[in-house]
Amino acid sequence: MEPVGDTTGWYIWAGEYSDADDFFVPLHTAHVDEWDPKIKKYLGLAPGWRFLIAEDLRMCGLTNSY
To answer: Which of 2, 20, 21, 53 has the most CB atoms in a 10 Å sphere around its CB?
Structure first.
């Protein structure tokens, strides 16, 4: 997603996705290392990219949705 205002454009979740209005909670990039340091290196990807980190490393990957 394109960055809007003071956001990065990233939406990050862990576990099962939900359509609930409060599913995504703001996380300042200063706190990314506290939440999960593995994701930091992916946040520089251009808009349209997404990534998956799984316990089973055979399932990890990058995709571009454009």
So the answer is: 53
Rounded-to-10 torsion of CA 17, 64, 37, 21: -30
* The total number of residues written for the chain in this structure: 66
Q: What would you report as the CA-atom Rg of the chain, rounded to the nearest whole angstrom? A: 12
Residue type present at position 21: D
Q: What is the pLDDT of residues 40-54, one digit of tens each?
A: 888 888 878 888 777
CB 44 within 8 A of CB 54: no
CA separation for the pair 51, 9 (Å, rounded):
14
The rounded distance, in Å, linking the Cα atoms of 26 and 16 is 18
